[in-house]
Design brief:
With about 375 residues, the protein is of the alpha/beta class. The chain is built from twelve helices and 14 strands. It has one domain: Rossmann fold, CATH 3.40.50. The protein has a nine-stranded mixed β-sheet, with helices on one face. Strands 2-1-12 form a three-stranded antiparallel β-sheet, with no helix packed on it. The N and C termini lie far apart (about 40 Å). The site of one 2-acetamido-2-deoxy-beta-D-glucopyranose has 6 residues, from loops. Belongs to the pectinacetylesterase family. GO terms for molecular function: pectin acetylesterase activity. Keywords: Cell wall, Cell wall biogenesis/degradation, Hydrolase, Secreted, Signal.
């Protein structure tokens, strides 16, 4: 994949006009440096074989709730793409996306993770957890054997359970409310594990899920190839994921197809909220115009800077939006599902302060801001 999927600061462009916002981002990062949250390693997971790609223990960051939020939990999954074969998993193994030895020990909590009321009015005082992504398959893999030559561990499914068990023991088992959230590959983790998360919690807990920048659509690339479909099917094969994907989906389709929310999201029984851009700035370079489909590099400048696109390329991108909206219809209309779709050239919105809640964060009809859908999501109201 061309760019690593990650939750963090990205250039934002709305309505296909690039607005440079890096300066704002730097200011925000600086301001948040005093709310960095330390890492916790889940040492007990190792004995269960619930380990990262390199065999190291999984990890998370927890900022404890306070006041009225003391018994409310928000568990967020970070993104970071996938690895689809031995060679890409080997290159990932000794990075922060494959090994807790390489992870930052402190991370800023921003957007939906912020502890400051003015930046995150609905969740600032909840227990907020950032689960580190370290398996390369949205926590779905489970292969018992470990090849001594590569020392690659495909155990994401066990990691998900081990981390949740630790959080339950830390007090989440008494949660009044629990929200499972995630961006990108972490947003896919949310959809694939939402009902499992629900089942781990007591019946009395109100549970909802939010999947951000993860409505990856199954469309042909510009060369006509089914690039993303093949790619996901390789991820599932490499990690031995098939048995750990929801049977409601795998009983009907090839397991690789369950990575597409257009097939999977409607099967989730727990309330699910979808946040995505119709011009997702990861999907366009990696699903619509991946390098494999563009050997001459005609799309290279355009996909990273829309002002450099030709008229034809812009048309292709606008057609992608229509395909995205078609795929979104697959969600159906259930009162337990909600959506927020905007047209910023953006990827990951809930952990980026500018798109989560700021003076000019994406809004519905110019007045209704994120705050409103945060309120709809607010559990217990
Ligand atoms: C960041 O901190 C500086 C200095 O404390 C302040 O002037 C500025 O307004 C802050 N920015 C935001 C977005 O809060
Ligand atoms: C592994 O995956 C990468 C990225 O998708 C691809 O470029 C490469 O050709 C694959 N390697 C093999 C051996 O299949
Ligand atoms: C995008 O390209 C335009 C010129 O076509 C340039 O002015 C602008 O700085 C570029 N934006 C970024 C973010 O590189």
């Amino acid at each position: 994949m061309v760019r690593k999927l990650a939750c963090g600061l990205f250039l934002i462009a709305c309505g296909l006009i690039l607005l440079k916002k890096t300066d704002v981002g730097v200011v925000l990062m600086t301001n948040f440096s005093d709310v960095n949250v330390g890492i916790t390693y889940v040492g007990t997971a190792v004995a269960k074989g619930a380990v990262c790609l390199d065999g190291s223990p999984p990890a998370y960051h927890l900022d404890e709730g306070f006041g009225a939020g003391r018994n409310k939990w928000l568990v967020h999954h970070e993104g970071g793409g996938w690895c689809s074969n031995m060679s890409t998993c080997l290159s990932r193994k000794d990075t922060r996306l494959g090994s807790s030895k390489k992870m930052e020990k402190l991370l800023p909590f921003i957007g939906i993770l912020s502890s400051q009321q003015k930046f995150n009015p609905d969740f600032y005082n909840w227990n907020r957890v950032l689960v580190r992504y370290c398996d390369g398959a949205s926590f779905t893999g489970d292969v018992e054997e470990v090849d001594p030559d590569t020392n690659l561990h495909f155990r994401g499914s066990r990691v998900f359970v081990a981390v949740m068990e630790e959080l339950l023991a830390m007090g989440m088992k008494k949660a009044q409310d629990a929200l499972l959230t995630g961006c990108s590959a972490g947003g896919l983790t949310v959809t694939l594990h939402c009902d499992q998360f629900r089942a781990l919690l007591p019946r009395a807990t109100k549970v909802k899920c939010v999947t951000d920048a993860a409505y990856f659509v199954n469309v042909k690339d510009i060369s006509g190839a089914r690039h993303i479909e093949t790619y996901y099917s390789d991820v599932v094969k490499t990690h031995g994921s098939a048995n750990n994907l929801p049977p409601s989906c795998t009983s009907k389709r090839k397991p690789g197809l369950c990575f597409f929310q257009q097939n999977m999201a409607k099967l989730v029984e727990t309330p699910l909220f979808v946040v995505n851009s119709a011009y997702d700035s990861w999907q366009i370079p990696n699903i619509l115009a991946p390098d494999t489909a563009d050997p001459d590099g005609r799309w290279h400048d355009c996909k990273f800077n829309l002002t450099k696109c030709s008229t034809d390329q812009l048309k292709t991108i606008q057609d992608f939006r229509l395909m995205f909206l078609d795929a979104l219809k697959e969600l159906g209309s259930s009162s337990s599902r909600g959506i927020f779709i905007d047209s910023c050239y953006e990827h990951d919105q809930i952990t980026v302060q500018e798109t989560w809640l700021s003076d000019d964060s994406p809004a519905l009809d110019g007045t209704v801001r994120y705050l409103n859908w945060q309120r709809q999501l607010e559990i217990g109201t």
